[in-house]
Design a protein that fits this description.
By secondary structure, the chain is mostly helical. It is built from 6 helices and no strands.
C-alpha cells in the first residue's frame, strides 16, 4: 500500500501535466514496438525473396508466378514491378518505386516517433514554467504558508522536467535502433534489385 501511496503522492506533486506526459510515454513505446514488428516482418519477407531469387534456373515468368503465390506485400510489390517492366516500363524506375514505397512508410513512422520524443521534454519544460509561476505567486502573495507553497511549486517544476527527460530517453534510443533497421532494410532492397536486374538482363 505504501508503494501505491508514494506513486499517487508523486503524481499529485507533479500536477496536471503528468497526464499528457504519461500519454506521450505510451505513444512512444507503442510507436517503437509497431515500427519494430513492421520492419521485422518486412525483413523476413525480403529474406524469403532473396532465397527465391537465388534459385537456379529461375526465369521471369516463373518468378512472377511464385511471387504472386506467396502473396506477401514485398512479393506482390515486386511482381507488380515485373509486370510493369513486361509492359514496357523502365526497369530501374519500376524497381526503385517498389523500394521507395516500403521505405517511405517506415520513414513516416520514424517522423511520428521523433515528434513524440521531442514533445516529451517540451511538456516537461512547460511544467517547469507552470511550477515556477506558482512559486513566484506564492512569494508575491506572502502569508504564513509561503514556504510550503514555494516548495510545492519547485517540486512540481522539477518533477515534470524529470519525467519529460526520462520519457524522451526510450524515444531517443528507440529511434537510433529503428534507423539502423531501416538502413538494413534499404540494403536488402538494393540486393533484391540487383538480383532482379541480373535476371531481367538474361531473359
Amino acid at each position: 500500500m505504501k508503494g501505491f501511496e508514494g506513486i499517487f503522492s508523486t503524481w499529485g506533486d507533479g500536477g496536471y501535466l503528468l497526464l499528457p506526459l504519461a500519454l506521450t510515454s505510451m505513444l512512444i513505446f507503442a510507436q517503437i514496438f509497431r515500427s519494430e514488428f513492421s520492419m521485422r516482418d518486412l525483413s523476413k519477407q525480403l529474406r524469403e525473396l532473396l532465397v527465391l531469387l537465388e534459385k537456379k534456373g529461375l526465369n521471369v515468368g516463373s518468378l512472377s508466378q511464385e511471387m504472386v503465390d506467396c502473396a506477401t506485400p514485398i512479393m506482390l510489390g515486386y511482381a507488380q514491378a515485373l509486370s510493369q517492366v513486361k509492359q514496357g516500363a523502365n526497369t530501374m524506375s519500376a524497381l526503385v518505386a517498389v523500394e521507395e514505397g516500403f521505405c517511405t512508410q517506415q520513414r513516416k513512422e520514424m517522423i511520428t516517433l521523433s515528434a513524440l520524443t521531442a514533445a516529451a521534454p517540451l511538456l516537461g519544460l512547460l511544467g517547469t514554467v507552470a511550477g515556477m509561476i506558482h512559486t513566484f505567486d506564492a512569494v508575491a502573495v506572502g502569508g504564513g504558508d509561503t514556504g510550503s507553497q514555494v516548495a510545492e511549486g519547485i517540486s512540481s517544476a522539477l518533477l515534470t522536467t524529470q519525467f519529460g527527460l526520462v520519457i524522451a530517453l526510450p524515444g531517443v534510443f528507440g529511434s537510433a535502433h529503428l534507423y539502423k533497421r531501416i538502413r538494413n532494410l534499404e540494403t536488402h532492397l538494393v540486393q533484391c534489385r540487383f538480383f532482379l536486374l541480373e535476371l531481367l538482363e538474361m531473359r
